[in-house]
Amino acid sequence: MSEAVEHVPAAGATSVRRSRDVPLLVERARTGDPRAVARLITLVENGDALLPEIAAALAPYAGQAQVVGLTGSPGVGKSTTTNELVRALRERGHRVGVLAVDPSSPFTGGAILGDRVRMQDHATDPGVYIRSMSSRGHLGGLAAATPQAVRVLEGAGCDVVLVETVGVGQAEVEVASLADTTLVLLAPGMGDAIQAVKAGILEIADVFVVNKADRDGADATVRDIQGMIALGERGPGQWRPQVVRSVAARGEGIDDIAAAIDKHRGWLVEHGELRRRQEARAAAEIEAIALGVLRARIGSLRDGTELTTLAAKVAEGTNDPYTAADELLAQLGT
Ligand SMILES: Nc1nc2c(ncn2[C@@H]2O[C@H](COP(=O)(O)OP(=O)(O)OP(=O)(O)O)[C@@H](O)[C@H]2O)c(=O)[nH]1
Ligand SMILES: [Mg+2]
């Protein structure tokens, strides 16, 4: 493949790695230079001051990749499935980006190391970018940083971006809901079906994958989920979540997962839902960025005299906290 050329350390490789020249980085990322892609994602992740410039440069490439989220409890087989999906997508000639995201941790941890190992198969493939993400310095957290990283991968010409998120909780639901198609992975006998309902995951699942189908209880888990889907209220023309079983560790069922993703993609396009989801994603992005800015401004007011003065008045009973909050917001110049 001619792209392999990009992997040869070219002159100026170090400068790309440390560069703050956004037009250069974006231009290099456009040609598929993995160092430029990595550099841009690092800047995004750190909430660098260059972020607005990066976002502006990447704006024209928005919506060019199919974004597929994979979520589910720790150890359910997300990375193994992702690895196999990458293989299937590569066979179809797609360029693929993978973001492994852990919303529960501000730093990349052990789980991410495991991801790296399990996705080693594609480490030398120039058509695949694999990246672990943490929220580090980003004001809006991962809910804001992840879509920016997706934009970088779109800019780099990825046809599909797979976003793996760990855990079950609100942060994970937030990140997962940034995808066009969301896969919820379950395993037999983990009480997962019940948990999924609790975490509000049922609403975000477009495809349920019962992985580890080589284990006892897979049939019961499939039945449980199908029962839950049947109970869910659905208007005419609404998507009915698919249930697929897989043994990712043996590469079994991966074609079925890919087929379910394709089917959902077709439905999204046919019903105008793809654009609606892209707009919902943009709305969440704008909101997260705006709230991050507000939070930072309020934080800086805390160091100054304004908040201190207001707080003293509320504490001594000469002002109430609602009026004080209004006054604070007025001072933010919003
Ligand atoms: N028996 C069986 N084991 C599997 C299957 N798929 C994955 N595993 C194993 O389950 C373990 C966890 O797999 P991962 O792919 O790392 O799971 P994960 O959901 O990415 O885990 P975290 O990122 O830590 O949340 C590994 O030891 C896999 O080899 C499967 O279909 N059957
Ligand atoms: Mg994993």
TrEMBL record:
Keywords: Chaperone, GTP-binding, Hydrolase, Nucleotide-binding. Residues 64-208 form the AAA+ ATPase domain. It comes from the Bacteria. SMART domains: AAA (SM00382). The keyword GTP-binding applies. InterPro entries: AAA+_ATPase (IPR003593), GTPase/Isobutyryl-CoA_mutase (IPR052040), GTPase_ArgK (IPR005129), P-loop_NTPase (IPR027417). CDD domains: MMAA-like. This is Methylmalonyl Co-A mutase-associated GTPase MeaB.
